[in-house]
Design goal:
One of its GO terms (cellular component) is nuclear telomere cap complex. Helix content is about 25%, strand content about 30%. By secondary structure, the protein is of the alpha+beta class. Helix 7 (about 315-320) packs across helix 9 (about 355-365). The longest helix has about 40 residues, at about 1-45. It is elongated.
């Protein structure tokens, strides 16, 4: 019995030792696999995001890297590489394929990249523009003035339901007008979009020079006071572009062929409700007038009357009687200004001494207010484009630019 017990204990000991040995071997094997896996993973370059920016990290012990020109070229020599990098024929084949892909898929031609002429409200997209100036508002918000040579889409205005409670629309989204020395650096053709940034981007100090084009990624726009306003979101990014970038080249070529033109939106919808005395005079944008070298000058322009103050029938009758002036707010794709109908020009502008009903009808046509007989009650109005003659004047010779005003003349609204 003893020997049997002894033999049984011995067999149990041998079995337990064998099992422990296999467990040790299996554990060692698994540890080897795990260490090998993590060593392999550490040798692979990793793409990570830090503060919204993408970075590529690599292990110097196991990995290597090389940077090549992205343009179509036969040169396969990197302009920067690590010490352990050794090029191969396979690398050259991949590089050639990537360059060919860039040729047929140039940056800036994707669906989400828009021009100012096709921006939309409440949607995100990319925008490639030249940054003309950067201004910091009193509340710390930075305003970027961007431009690509095109006109922003025409906006509609809320319907005027109560003339007593309607406030005239502002001329600028940023409140105070730009200093004249800054204003004169802005282009006279094409819309300048105000883009508001609530946080600082590292590219903004470079953009203050006014010489760079940039791609605004994941930007959005909305309308305030029927003016377009760009907004940089927390997820937005700003990328500086060279003048050789495909999107920039495309825009520069288009701009060079459209040095002086009428607003794109009015080409098919310009109305004939107004006659002007200077029919053969050249076309001038409002921005051209604002940046004109002389305070006083005359010009013909193509605008929309977006507001009138006052515009009630009794006020218009007072205008014809020579007792008061009426202020119109005019806009084109480049700017928005106030222009006055002086009491001496009222009868000429409205085509004679008309009844209150006839005056109201003509003013409503200017403001885009439909006739009462039309079905439904629209919530918005779309003022028509009209030709108009303006002349500037000053109120104070000691402050000519600060007291400059505009006056409508030589313009008559048809029946």
């Amino acid at each position: 019995m003893y020997c049997l017990l002894h033999s049984t204990e011995f067999l149990y000991y041998v079995f337990e030792t064998t099992v422990n040995f296999h467990v040790i071997v299996l554990t060692f094997f698994l540890l080897t696999i795990i260490i090998t896996y993590f060593s392999f993973m550490s040798s692979i370059p990793q793409i990570t995001m830090h503060h919204g920016e993408f970075f590529v990290t690599y292990n110097k012990k196991f990995s290597s890297f090389a940077l090549f020109e992205g343009k179509a070229s036969t040169e396969c020599r990197p302009y920067q590489c690590s010490l352990k990098y050794h090029g191969s024929k396979h690398d050259n084949e991949i590089l050639t394929q990537m360059r060919m892909w860039l040729v047929y898929n140039p940056p800036g031609l994707k669906d989400l990249e828009l021009q100012l002429r096709s921006i939309k409200s409440d949607s995100t997209f990319d925008l490639v523009c030249k940054v003309l100036d950067v201004h910091e508002a009193s509340n710390g918000v930075r305003i970027l003035y961007v431009w690509d040579g095109t006109d922003t889409p025409v906006t509609e205005f809320p319907m005027i339901l109560d003339s007593k409670s309607v406030s005239p629309p502002p001329l600028h989204l940023e409140g105070a007008p730009l200093p004249r020395e800054v204003l004169c650096t802005l282009p006279c053709v094409g819309s300048v979009l105000r883009v508001f940034a609530n946080r600082l981007f590292k590219e903004i100090p470079h953009l203050q020079k006014g010489i760079y084009w940039a791609r605004f990624c994941n930007i959005t726009c909305k309308q305030e006071f029927s003016m377009w306003k760009g907004i940089l979101l927390p997820s937005s990014r700003v990328r500086l572009l060279s003048n050789e970038d495909g999107s920039v080249v495309d825009r520069l070529n288009r701009i060079n062929t459209q040095i002086h033109r009428q607003p794109m939106a009015c080409l098919c919808s310009a109305s004939d409700i107004a006659d002007v005395e200077y029919e053969r005079a050249g076309y001038t944008t409002l921005m051209e007038s604002l940046t004109h070298g002389e305070v006083t000058h005359k010009f013909k322009t193509l605008v929309r009357v977006v507001a009138a103050h006052p515009h009630r029938a009794s006020d218009l009758c007072s205008l014809l009687a020579g007792n008061r002036c009426v202020r119109l707010t005019l806009e084109d794709p480049t700017a928005r200004v106030h222009a006055f109908i002086h009491k001496d020009d009222g009868a000429k502008f409205f085509g004679g001494f008309l009844t209150a009903e006839a005056l109201t009808r003509k003013m409503n046509r200017l403001l885009g207010i439909p006739e009462d007989t039309e079905e439904g009650a629209p919530l918005t109005r779309n003022p028509p484009w009209i030709w108009c003659c303006l002349k500037s004047y000053r109120l104070n010779k000691n402050d000519p630019w600060g007291t400059r005003r505009y006056r409508i003349f030589g313009t008559e609204i048809r029946d």
